[in-house]
Amino acid sequence: MHNMTIRDFFQHRSGNGQPPSSSSSSAPPSRMNVLITSAGGGGIGGGAGIGSINIFSRRSLPSSSLMDLISTEDWRLARMECEVDPREAARWFNRSGFFDGVLDSTVLPLHLACALRPPGNFVEFLAYAFPEGARSRETTFHRLPIHVACQTGASAEVIKVLLQRYSDGSRAKDSLGRLPIHYACSHGASFDVIRALLDSFPGSAACPDKNGWLPLHVVCRTGPSSPEVVRALLEAFPPSILARTKKGSTALVCARKCGDKGKETVEILEEALKRSGVHGQVHDSLMREGGGSSPSSSKHGRPKHALGA
Predict the structure, then answer these.
(1) Does residue 235 share a domain with residue 200?
(2) In what order do the strands lie in the sheet with 103-107?
(3) Do 39 and 82 belong to one domain?
(4) Which of 23, 43, 257, 309 lies in disulfide reach of 50, CB 3.0 to 4.6 Å?
(5) Which of 116-134 are b and which e, b meaning 16 or more Cβ less than 10 Å from the residue's Cβ?
(6) Are 53 and 194 in a shared domain?
(7) What is the pLDDT along the chain (309 residues), one digit of tens a residue?
(8) Looking at the structure, do residues 90 and 116 belong to the same domain, yes or no?
(9) Which residues contact 215 (CB under 8 A, 6 or more apart)?
(10) Across-strand partners of 54?
(11) Is there a domain that residue 14 lies in?
(12) Would you give the DSSP letter of residue 97?
């Protein structure tokens, strides 16, 4: 099989791309573990961090050569390995501590690659080797590769490749009710990334997670990469300026918690409120709730991760 071409592989491959059960023997422990700080019990709406990457080595039983090469970010050799044996792109592996360094998950090579900010051409190659990979979910939070990519700051090129392979990925929710755009917003994604996600699914700006957080709440709490990101979200769903999380916070409250770094966002939101004609009503409400403190008096600053509100 080592002389098999990708075309031969597609003609002879069997299986439906579903992850094996936790008892499957086809997912041996790996030498390298990828820790992705997840949104596990909180994140955007609770308090746990999301998206931090830390690679650390831990010797165990031998694992897939492709997975090892991806773990060390040797993209050239990883591609060569996959060319020799394309079946590896479709193989599921249990990754110990994949989330939070505690929670295991069964993942594909594409999930692992997307956690490491890979070059777009490598993601495109993996998605070609195993087309079902882009629509396959890991087993812990049921995230697609595009969720993981947005969660870990992947480039716009990578996001576009994943959307080309599975356009409905932009509207897919994980077990916490979050779309890829929620994670992109929580990690300061570029305007190009946000634009690609909105173009793919304009309604994503109106989708709350299980804690009532819209993408606008998230980006206002963590700080946008540019003012254009805030304006794009407001344009996509104007009512988001008045929407509240389950704990009652508006986007303006979230932005004010960012301190000085949220000043420009606050200005954009206040201008949007003025245009909506309800600025005075909302301002009075915020003052009563204690959300009207000046940015300079905030003790929070920009959070390391999105916090509850």
Answers:
(1) no
(2) 53-57, 32-36, 93-99, 103-107
(3) yes
(4) 43
(5) bebbbebbbbbbbbbebbb
(6) yes
(7) 445 444 444 444 434 445 654 444 344 333 334 344 444 444 554 444 444 444 333 333 344 589 999 999 999 999 999 999 999 999 999 999 888 788 999 999 999 999 999 999 999 999 999 999 999 999 999 999 999 999 999 999 999 999 999 999 999 999 999 999 999 999 999 999 999 999 999 999 999 999 999 999 999 999 888 999 999 999 999 999 999 999 999 999 999 998 888 899 999 999 999 887 655 455 555 444 444 433 333 333 333 333 233
(8) yes
(9) 179, 181, 182, 185, 204, 205, 207, 233, 240
(10) 35
(11) no
(12) E
In this structure, what DSSP letter does residue 57 have?
A: E
Phi and psi at 138, nearest 5°, equal -70, 170
In this structure, the answer to whether residues 160 and 198 fall within a common structural domain is yes
Q: How far apart are CA 177 and CA 13, in angstroms?
A: 33
Per the domain annotation, does 277 fall within a domain?
A: yes
302: DSSP letter: S
Q: Which residues contact 175 (CB under 8 A, 6 or more apart)?
A: 141, 142
Same structural domain, 55 and 156: yes
Cα 2 to Cα 96: distance, rounded to the nearest angstrom:
29
Question: Are residues 174 and 143 in contact, defined by beta-carbon separation less than 8 angstroms?
Answer: yes
Instruction: Answer yes or no: do 192 and 237 share one domain.
Output: no
Kindly state whether residues 173 and 303 are assigned to the same domain.
no
CATH number where 291 lies: 1.25.40
Contacts with 3 (C-beta within 8 Å, 6 or more apart), sequence order: none
Whether 25 maps to a domain, the answer reads no
Name the helix (H) or strand (E) containing 54: strand 53-57
Contact 188, 154 (CB under 8 A): no
pTM of the model: 0.76
Domain span at 309: 212-309
What's the structural domain count of the chain? 2
